[in-house]
Specification:
This protein has 10 helices and no strands. By secondary structure, the chain is mainly α. The longest helix has about 35 residues.
Length: about 325
């Protein structure tokens, strides 16, 4: 549960500063990020997809085995990020969770509720606006028939999609945010916090494919910005993970019920009308999380003196 009183804004370290608790060599943040991206983005992806779905490595069409491979790949990003932080940065992996060095389950549960409220509001806004193309929420059609493939998809979505969403947050809002904050340690505090949000958000958008159009990229970039700002405001990954999990569960659930998984997973084009929907989701969730974090007195910085008390890094 969150502490009874929040840390003063001047005390301790912000989330993007936590790599300073490890080894401080200037090369470590960049080398660690490169190892994580090469290892997770290429080597690990190739191995997992080749093992789980060797006859459908491009996901055309998306099958339950292909979706499970993608989800397992990103789930493995969680221990991968922790391992890189430990081996390269000499940073105990617990500092990837939050400024308290642990995952704050009470705060996370509250964020799941806020994410659900946000998605209901977003779905309503989407329904009253003109078509957003592939991003539209259309619940007026006929339900897809229940089949064994739908059953398998449903199991994959329920069991593995939360881990996939968490894996992306550990990489982009976790390790990468801390690495960027460490790389630009000499900058002013405000500039360092801004770049620690913008750079991971931009890379998060690019990571979804170079063929995406502007509205689709904006949707991913905006999500990355909001999740990054929430890391700064709440001192941990919980809020971003909660929104990511609920968003993906809803998206895949609608695809199973009314659409198809292939077009949902490989979306590259959308309408400019998708941008107001994206802004609704982003700003509503950001406002609600800011409000609840103040009500719950969520710590946004580590304990005062944690940097001075750390063991000398070797």
């Amino acid at each position: 549960m969150p502490s009874a009183e929040p840390r003063p804004a001047s005390a301790g370290l912000a989330y993007h500063q936590l790599q300073r608790l490890g080894a401080r060599d200037a090369w470590r943040p960049l080398v660690g990020a490169l190892i994580l991206f090469i290892g997770v983005w290429y080597v690990l992806a190739i191995l997992v997809v080749a093992v789980i779905t060797p006859h459908n490595v491009d996901g055309e069409p998306v099958t339950p085995s292909y979706l499970s491979a993608i989800n397992v790949w990103w789930a493995l990003a969680i221990p991968s990020a922790c391992l890189v932080a430990w081996l390269i940065n000499k940073l105990p992996p617990r500092w990837l969770f939050s400024v308290l060095g642990r995952f704050r389950w009470g705060w996370f549960a509250g964020c799941l509720g806020l994410a659900l409220v946000t998605l209901v509001v977003t779905a309503w806004v989407s329904s009253v606006l003109p078509s957003q193309g592939s991003s539209s929420v259309d619940l007026s059609g006929h339900l897809n028939p229940w089949t064994s493939q739908m059953r398998d998809f449903l199991l994959v979505v329920l069991l593995l999609t939360p881990l996939q969403a968490a894996g992306e947050e550990f990489v982009f809002r976790g390790y990468l945010t801390q690495s960027v904050g460490n790389l630009f340690h000499g900058w002013s505090p405000r500039a360092r916090s801004v770049v620690a949000v913008v750079v991971p958000a931009f890379l998060f958008g690019l990571a979804h494919g170079i063929g995406q159009d502007v509205p689709v990229f904006f949707d991913r970039f905006a999500f990355g910005l909001v999740a990054g700002v929430l890391v700064q405001l709440t001192g941990g990954l919980e809020a971003g993970i909660a929104m990511h999990v609920m968003n993906n569960l809803l998206t895949f659930g609608i695809a199973l019920a009314y659409g198809d998984m292939t077009s949902t997973l490989h979306v590259t084009e959308s309408s400019w009308w998708a941008i107001p929907v994206t802004l609704t989701q982003s700003l509503v969730y950001l406002a609600l999380c800011w409000w609840l974090s103040r009500r719950m007195r969520v710590d946004r910085r580590s304990a005062e003196g944690v940097l001075e008390a750390r063991e000398p890094a070797r």
